[in-house]
User: Which sequence fits this backbone?
């Protein structure tokens, strides 16, 4: 009997040790808003939307301690559309699906993941999403300059290497295989520095789009926390052949007693395309937005945003990210929203 009890105790100890060395976490965000938008000749529309403060999602991530400082991990993440209860059927874990090995050497990560040029563009005062975000220009409609590039945000078949922690210096190199898909073959990297107040970085990427000219993308980020407010800036440049867009964004997030005031501005300067294409000289756009996030708890918040985009020439940028049918070049876009976000 004693031997049986000792054996059971030993098995329990082994099981406890194993569970302590590995873990799996379920996580997610549920975010829904009601918004009213107006897009020139396309008219006005009231909508319920998903993910205007933080993209609605659910996922699983896990890590196993292999000993000697070596760890294996995985990350599977799927986008949710709270307004309709649907998910991305084409790429169910389309937000991220990776497996990694990490240690003192850094991290090697395989699978569908964010590109370095997109990662360096994060840090937007509006969280890179919603009707007030600079993400409208960073990865919204027309941001690939009419090329076949699909790497504005993520790349399939990616192999990435991340630098280990080195006194605030961080970096990434990524190569993704096209595997017969035009616009997915990407090579890029980023290098940055971050401490308690400063987050600055530079990134560069090239995408093979099946034409003599590659799609090229680089950006420079400089964010600084002054304590009473955080400054958010980004200089983002994309080129494809003669076509070019230069985006200059500046914004601020100001903490108040129970929330955060947000304000942002972007100037998109386009050139090189044929007249009427939306990429010609003078086809420029300007974003101006202000908003407020009220924290009900660490995980739950209500928010509101007011935004306007002014277009010139044949530009058709919209607060929706992609211009709706019926909106003409040079027409303006505006909107406001009120939403609720919960993190689990």
Assistant:
């Amino acid at each position: 009997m004693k031997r049986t009890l000792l054996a059971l105790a030993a098995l329990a100890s082994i099981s406890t040790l194993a569970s302590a060395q590995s873990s799996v976490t379920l996580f997610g965000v549920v975010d829904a808003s009601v918004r009213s938008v107006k897009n020139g000749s396309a008219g006005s529309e009231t909508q319920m939307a998903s993910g205007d403060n933080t993209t609605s999602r659910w996922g699983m991530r896990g890590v196993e301690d292999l000993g000697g400082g070596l760890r294996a991990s995985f990350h599977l993440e799927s986008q949710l559309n709270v307004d309709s209860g649907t998910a991305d059927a084409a790429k169910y874990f389309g937000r991220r699906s990776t497996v990694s090995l990490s240690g003192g050497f850094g991290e090697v990560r395989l699978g569908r993941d964010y590109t370095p040029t997109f990662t360096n563009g994060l840090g937007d005062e509006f969280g890179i999403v919603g009707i007030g975000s600079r993400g409208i220009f960073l990865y919204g409609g027309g941001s690939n300059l009419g090329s076949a590039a699909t790497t504005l945000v993520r790349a399939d078949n990616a192999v990435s290497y991340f630098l280990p922690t080195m006194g605030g210096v961080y970096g990434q190199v990524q190569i993704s295989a096209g595997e017969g898909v035009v616009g997915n073959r990407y090579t890029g990297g980023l290098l940055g520095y971050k401490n308690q107040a400063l987050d600055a970085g530079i990134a560069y990427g090239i995408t093979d789009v099946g034409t003599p000219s590659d799609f090229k993308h680089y950006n420079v980020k400089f964010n600084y926390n002054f304590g009473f407010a955080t400054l958010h800036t980004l200089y983002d440049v994309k080129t494809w052949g003669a076509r070019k867009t230069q985006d200059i964004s500046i914004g601020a997030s100001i903490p108040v007693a129970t929330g955060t005031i947000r304000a942002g501005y972007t100037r998109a300067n386009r050139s090189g395309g044929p007249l009427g294409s939306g990429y010609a000289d003078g086809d420029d756009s300007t974003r101006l937005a202000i908003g407020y996030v009220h924290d009900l708890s660490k995980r739950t918040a209500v928010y509101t945003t007011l935004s306007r985009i002014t277009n010139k020439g044949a530009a058709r940028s919209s607060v929706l990210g992609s211009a709706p049918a019926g909106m003409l070049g040079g027409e303006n876009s505006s909107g406001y929203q009120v939403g609720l976000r919960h993190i689990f």
Notes: The CA atoms of residues 152 and 162 lie 19 Å apart. The chain has one domain: 24-343.
